[in-house]
Input
Amino acid sequence: MDNFRVARILDLARGRGADFAELFVEETRFSSLVLRDRKIESATAGTEFGIGVRMIFGAQVLYGHTSREDEEALAKLVLDLAAARPRGGMDLDLGEAVSGRAAHGQKLSHMVQPFDPAKDGRLDAVRLADETARSVSSKVAQVSSTVLHKNSRIAIFNSEGLDVSDDRTWTRMTVSVIAEDGGQRQSGSEAPGQRRGLEYLESLDVRKLSTLAADRAVRMLSAKPAPAGEMPVLIGNGFGGVIFHEACGHPLETEALRRKATPFAGRIGEVVAHSCLTALDDGTIPDAWGTLAMDDEGSPTQKTVLIENGILKTFLSDRVGAAECGVPR
Output
């Protein structure tokens, strides 16, 4: 989008009383290849494009989106949002609740190798996964292997003059196995991924992950029911992180704090967990799936310690949450 059009839309939003206005532009190209039972089940590709408009009035946040980028459509969206604004909301000084901010016009991106069709190893990878999984046991009844590739180009503009962009690329391979014995069926899967292009497949040990998935499915066929009762539980890496995120990560967001929907409210500096526990949100780990150069407000990602040795240190926040709850952004 050209800067003149962006400026006019943001000025229109401020002219309708918004304390802050933002445009979020995203174009995502994606493709996937699925092999199921030695046959290509699907090969798809597509493009998604959209522009989001966010307007903040005090503590009220209004958001709308459109797939059109002409000025008329964007202006109508701004006017519709302004007209839908609830009256009587709480005033809030957004101020500079900022811990880090990208420079205007800065391009924040991860280096991604250019796509080389001659080195597209997706078909070889899914076929190798199928072959390897089936070699683990005669009890393997079904194998599905998928490679997903996605590239997003992001641009963020706001009424404070912010103008940043980012290229985001992901590649993930999934191997799912179903084992069968005596009418009983069990499943196992592995789904590693990184913030890299298709060159990621060259470094991926497809044989190992396929063997792990198949072995897990076969071993589950003879697994005994887990005992019932109250007992210590150890949560390991990987999916254990998802469990922790859902149980504790969301309640550690200022959105939950604003809605008074968290047991952590008013407890910064207090012991909220065992002293062995330290929890952090880190958007800077090289090539990690959740790593970004910037968040969706245009601030550079960082490492945020939420709980340290059992003591609550802070909350995860966005612009409004930081201002309303009085924590760093």
